[in-house]
Specification:
The chain is an alpha+beta fold. About 30% of the residues lie in helices and about 25% in strands. The longest helix has 17 residues.
């Protein structure tokens, strides 16, 4: 006689999932504001637009993940930072269009559901959502043995923001003579980890706890540094007509991302010397004997956001933040190469 089986014996623990939801409910509620309706666990998240706060809003949305930085988190058994990474990455993606985040939804896929790991990841979501004044209104936890191995997991997030139509970025006023300002990154952020892991853990034979003198910290801590959100330093300038464009420096590096906001007839001249490149990138380049072009294409090199601004507000932005001058826009007939490294 065949023995009776249940869902848990096939690898899916419904009770563990319910316990995880119970453990995070009170934390998630701390991100709510008066526009959030309903509660965690509903079929859909409900959010009311405050009509008194907006005149002619455009809805801006973005979905993203954390990539193979998750493998570093698993090696280190530290799961809270990647939750913050995901929220901040998404915030920056809609910020480049001038949007202010309103709410966030997450997806967590796992091979086996461990409530303590889920709670740590959600802690990261909650911290970053509160820092960005963004409500965490829903999500999905999926236990999928066979798709993910025991101990593996994946993250994805969706963010929704609003921007007034008349201050949508990039602006048509972008022109030759505009200044390029670079806002420092905290490290790799969430891009380039496949190459970084190969160099650091295979070629250089470091482990997650290896202390690196050049970095003044263990390599695991350097790699798991939290993706910076640029919302707070940019908020005072989003409606300023002198702000012409923003570029979030993610996969594709400075050239690949800055070129997305440079219109035909203009070329960005980026002045980034070797000593301006953050130590973690110098370590990776030297350890892997990587060519400059590959480094520029793969990593942010220490610049997480680039602002294209009129000369009139550039100094004001530098004085109000940690932004630095990194170049200028010039007229150009070269339509294929809109970013040049000086």
């Amino acid at each position: 006689m065949n023995r009776s089986i249940d869902y848990k014996s096939s690898g899916v623990d419904i009770e563990a999932g319910e316990n995880a939801v119970k453990a995070i409910k009170s934390k998630v509620r701390t991100t709510y504001n008066r526009n959030v309706l309903g509660d965690l666990g509903s079929f859909g998240g409900l959010y009311r637009m405050d009509k008194n706060a907006w005149i002619n809003p455009i809805i801006v949305s973005s979905t993203d993940g954390v990539g193979t930085k998750l493998l570093v988190a698993i090696m280190a058994q530290q799961f809270g930072t990647v939750g913050q990474d995901l929220v901040n990455h998404c915030v920056n993606d809609i910020l480049v269009q001038g949007a202010i985040p309103q709410f966030f939804l997450d997806y967590i896929g796992v091979g086996k559901l461990y409530p303590s790991v889920i709670e740590s990841i959600i802690d990261g979501f909650v911290i970053a959502c509160k820092e960005n004044s963004c409500a965490l209104i829903g999500g999905e936890m999926a236990e999928m043995p066979g798709v993910y191995q025991d101990g593996d997991f994946d993250l994805a997030g969706t963010i929704i923001g609003f921007v007034e139509e008349d201050i949508l970025l990039p602006r048509k006023s972008i022109q030759a003579g505009d200044i390029l300002l670079g806002f420092p990154s905290s490290g790799l952020h969430t891009n380039g980890f496949s190459l970084a892991r190969k160099v650091l853990f295979e070629i250089m034979d470091l482990d997650i706890d290896s202390y690196v003198d050049e970095l003044r910290q263990p390599i695991g801590e350097a790699l798991l540094s939290i993706h910076t959100s640029y919302l707070k330093p940019m908020l005072p300038f989003l409606s300023n007509p002198g702000l012409h464009a923003l570029a979030h420096i993610t996969g594709g590096g400075i050239g690949g991302n800055l070129s997305r906001v440079i219109p035909k007839g203009l070329q960005a001249i980026v002045e980034l010397s070797k000593h301006d490149i953050a130590p973690i990138f110098q370590l990776i380049q030297k350890g892997g004997n990587i060519q400059d072009g590959i480094m520029r294409q793969t990593f942010n090199l220490g610049i997480g956001m680039i602002c294209v601004a009129s000369e009139g507000i550039a100094q004001e932005m530098i004085d109000a933040s940690d932004a630095m001058y990194i170049g200028i826009l010039e007229e150009s007939t070269n339509v294929d190469n809109r970013v040049v490294f000086s």
